[in-house]
Design a protein that fits this description.
Shape: elongated
Radius of gyration: 32 Å
Number of strands: 18
Distance between the termini: 102 Å
CATH topology of the largest domain: Jelly Rolls
CATH class of the largest domain: Mainly Beta
Helix content: under 10%
Number of domains: 2
CATH architecture of the largest domain: Sandwich
Mean pLDDT: 90
Order of helices and strands: HEEEEEEEEEEEEEEEEEE
Largest sheet: 6 strands, mixed
Number of helices: 1
Length: about 250
């Protein structure tokens, strides 16, 4: 029996943060969520810094390497010529990124059951030139990877489309288009040029050089120019047609 004694009860959380809307002081710590966390887990400053774009770490390899999920989000550097195999697609969440820097040249590939593609449709093994970087993204649906960014990806961009052949072209992001080829003069000294691809607007200049051991003049036949080609005329200093002479030409336009 307590008699007339009055009991006083205090809040047991006195001096501690309440469970509802707690306010912490000093430097409270918490576990850093996994790099692929996408839920209501509290984010530490370490997690936020990583999410802002900082690499989760750096790993250097000095030979061929099968990369794994532990390489996702890190800067991977190959210090010698090597072959890098991208991680197993099934172990990496959609959008996972692999960043590779090539010190001396790296060939990147995937496992045999997966694909590796680029913006212009190039498929298969991809060579990464020395002193360049490439960022590969795990695809959402198809089992494979895509080369998305980095200076090593520029050559595969439609803005830099090219065909590096005897008759070829090189596009530039400005819209300028550089084309070249070889033609042969007929009995009248005419060289009929067909551009590898059409100029969207037209060409602004064309230069021709003949292949031979004597002096010759190469001119653009007036009124012959179109988006698809033109006619060049070649003559020697005596004004005679350069029959069957080869002419190397280069045209620039947009």
């Amino acid at each position: 029996m307590l008699g007339a004694t009055n009991l006083a009860f205090q809040n047991v959380s006195n001096g501690f943060a309440p469970l509802a809307s707690p306010v912490f002081i000093d430097r409270p710590k918490a576990p850093t969520p996994d790099v692929f966390s996408n839920d209501t887990t509290l984010a530490t400053t370490e997690y936020v810094q990583r999410a802002l774009g900082s690499y989760a770490g750096q790993t250097n390899y000095d030979g061929d390497k099968q990369l794994t999920v532990s390489d996702i989000g890190k800067l991977t550097i190959f210090t010698v010529p090597a072959t890098a195999t991208l991680p197993d697609w099934t172990t990496v969440p959609p959008g996972g990124l692999v960043t590779i820097f090539s010190t001396a040249g790296v060939t990147v590939k995937t496992r045999s059951s997966e694909t590796l593609g680029t913006q212009n449709g190039t498929q298969g093994f991809l060579p990464i030139a020395a002193q360049t970087m490439a960022v590969f993204r795990r695809l959402l649906l198809a089992p494979g990877w895509s080369l998305d960014t980095g200076d090593a990806a520029l050559k595969y961009s439609p803005l830099f489309k090219s065909s590096l052949k005897a008759s070829g072209y090189q596009a530039n992001p400005s819209g300028m288009l550089d084309q070249w080829g070889i033609g042969q003069a007929d009995a009248s000294g005419n060289v009929y040029v067909t551009f590898p691809i059409s100029f969207p607007v037209g060409f602004s200049s064309i230069v021709g050089n003949h292949e031979g051991g004597d002096i010759a003049v190469v001119i653009l036949a007036s009124g012959s120019q179109t988006k698809q080609g033109c006619t060049l005329k070649i003559k020697n200093l005596a004004g005679q047609p350069g029959v069957n002479w080869a002419v190397h030409w280069r045209a620039v336009g947009y």
